[in-house]
Design a protein that fits this description.
Rossmann fold, 14% strand, SDR_fam, 272 residues, NAD(P)-bd_dom_sf, 7-stranded parallel sheet, alpha/beta, Oxidoreductase
């Protein structure tokens, strides 16, 4: 076993976007970093990052990857659950099978990783689990119901988990990005049972989403929030990433429900 005296961060979905920037930022913050990808042989090498194959939707893959990290480094101090998939389309247009596939990565993938890593963190008496949520974890988004549901699930799971593990020296924390300049839209599942009744509105929302992502925060903005969650002496449960995420969080907490509902419909150009 090759042990290390430096803290070790394990980052899922680190081949591009937020995961890539988070891995690099954690290296700069003094961590040894293991990044994962479903096919690490196709990943462009990153200075200071060791890549492993990992599919968070497969139990055996999760078990093997975590065991390899422990065998090679002897520790896991920070787990960044970043791997995720998108889903576009009206709720009625999305089959249960498609929704299950989204949850298998975005929700159950996080649970698989936590269940494998947490015993090691408890044994060492410290650790941080950082789950990448979204502003859609606490707000609705028409024509992204399944994705929003998966992030709402992560919010409830993480907050509950945090209460359970604090006495063991472990924290479970949330990072909440807003629209971020990644390949999210291109890599999101489209509705597998499209319906004419929703086509016009769906196309409008899809266009608005593409524009928001194009004009959104750089992934490095989210990476900065991840490093803060990993290193703050007194960590917060939730870290909004970037000014837009901060504004949305404030509005959700302070604006009356009826006014907030009206604003959601206005932004998405839905009839009042």
């Amino acid at each position: 076993m090759m042990t290390t005296t430096r803290p070790l961060a394990l980052v899922t979905g680190a081949s591009s976007g937020i995961g890539k920037e988070a891995a690099l930022a954690l290296v700069a913050a003094g961590f040894d970093v293991v990044g994962t990808s479903r096919d690490s042989s196709r990943v462009t090498p990153l200075d200071g990052v060791t890549f492993l194959d990992l599919d968070v939707a497969r139990d055996a893959s999760v078990t093997a990857a975590v065991q390899e990290v422990i065998e090679r480094f002897g520790r896991i101090d920070v787990l960044v659950n970043n791997a995720g998939v998108g889903s576009l389309g009206a709720a009625e247009e999305t089959s249960v099978a498609q929704a299950q596939a989204v949850f298998d990565t975005n929700v159950f993938g996080v649970m698989r990783m936590v269940n494998e890593v947490l015993p090691h963190m408890r044994a060492q008496g410290r650790g941080r689990i950082i789950n990448i949520s979204s502003v859609l974890g606490f707000t609705p988004q028409p024509y992204m119901a399944v994705y929003a549901a998966s992030k709402h699930a992560i919010e409830g799971y993480s907050e509950s988990l945090d209460h359970e593990v604090r006495e063991h020296g472990v924290r479970a924390l949330l990072v909440q990005p807003a629209y971020t300049r990644t390949g999210f839209e291109a890599n999101s599942a489209k509705p597998d049972t499209p319906l004419h009744a929703y086509a016009k509105r769906r196309q409008t929302v899809d266009r608005l989403m593409a524009e928001a992502i194009r004009d959104g925060d750089a992934p490095a903005v989210v990476a900065k929030a991840i490093v803060a969650a990993a290193t703050d002496a007194k960590p917060k449960l939730r870290y909004t990433a970037g000014p837009m995420a901060g504004r949305v969080s404030t509005l959700r907490r302070l604006v009356p429900a009826r006014a907030f509902d009206k604003q959601i419909r206005k932004i998405n150009r839905l009839a009042a």
